[in-house]
Amino acid sequence: MKPGHQNVGVDSAQTKVLLTSFSAMVAETTTFPVDLIKTRLQLHGESLSSSCSASAFRVGLGIVREQGVVGLYSGLSPAIIRHLFYTPIRIVGYEHLRSVVSADNGSFSVVGKAVVGGTSGVVAQIIASPADLVKVRMQADGQRMNQGHQPRYSGPFDALNKIVRAEGFRGLWKGVFPNIQRAFLVNMGELACYDHAKQFVIRSRIADDNVYAHTLASIISGLAATSLSCPADVVKTRMMNQAAKKEGKVLYNSSYDCLVKTVKVEGTRALWKGFFPTWARLGPWQFVFWVSYEKFRKFAGLSSF
Questions:
Q1: Among 102, 263, 277, 289, who pairs with 38 as Cys (CB 3.0-4.6 Å)?
Q2: CB distance 200 to 146 below 8 Å
């Protein structure tokens, strides 16, 4: 190895981390209101006072009426913090594993991409799970306020402190198993589909390696990721939102218990609650993220993802 080559590799990795973090922050801020509505819809059904005819529009309108437009960004700060860890690990990790596997085998199938994408997502989610927990709790606080209750937390650090005091340090990883399942499915759908779809578009000469190819690939990956991950996302949201009561009782004892009770009480379709808001968010999120990230890579002198 020639002198300086190792430093170049390190600099390249650091640049990718910075670019993924910035691109994720832009995408998260742009689409966060839709994520908030999706979370409220997924929690809908746990309360007996909830209306079964709730819709994304009604939920969004209710938030604006009760809290103003700023209410649509309740929980944004922990979401941004989460992506500072989650996105760089999964994106840069996927690209690194892809280069290692393809270098060894000379090729990289869609199945291999799916496994690598899911694996990188799992590692990233384990690390970012506490921030994800805080985000869900703060998003759910808005629903409590609509019902006349006081919010549980005044901010992300207050939420972290109260969760640790009430539920222990391990409480920060509540819902980590459905989170891991969701992360595997999301990244299997998102990273593998984006990567494979973009290469297909380019090879088929539908478009060059430009914004058109990136847009088509992001739409396909968004739909695949949503379809695969929605059930796990519903379970994850409900598991993470529940806080232990004084007597130590909780509504769901495990992810499986949550899954069974949700289907038993609300039917199988409940596992896809929030599907359209989720897709409506993942589509624009991936469009903003991938187009921004690809452009930033080009400006930084890096090759296309």
A1: 277
A2: no
For residues 23 and 31, give the distance between their C-alpha atoms in angstroms, rounded to a whole number. Answer: 12
pLDDT at 289: 93
Kindly state the tokens that stand for 64.
Answer: 């604006």
d(CA 187, CA 229): 9
DSSP string, 165-181: HHH-GGGGGTTHHHHHH
Which residues does 179 contact at the CB level (< 8 Å), separation at least 6? 125, 129, 132, 236, 240
Q: Please check the confidence at residue 164 and state whether its pLDDT lies above 70.
A: yes
What tokens were used for 170?
């391990």
Average pLDDT over residues 229-234: 82
d(CA 281, CA 177): 23
**pLDDT band, very low/low/confident/very high, at 135 (cuts 50, 70, 90):** confident
Q: Which token pair is 146? A: 């609509």
Distances (CA, A) of 254 to 167, 236, 238, 239: 16, 10, 11, 8
Asked if 263 contacts 270 with a C-beta cutoff of 8 angstroms, the reply is yes
Instruction: Tell whether the model's pLDDT for residue 186 goes beyond 90.
Output: no
Residue written as tokens 């509504």?
A: 251
**How far from 269 is each of 142, 264, 266, 275, 291, CA to CA, in Å?**
25, 11, 8, 10, 33
- Compute the distance between CA of residue 227 and CA of residue 62 in angstroms, rounded to an integer: 27
Which tokens is 15 given?
């640049």
Cα separation, 261 vs 255, in Å, equals 10
Quick check: 13 and 92 in contact, CB under 8 A?
yes
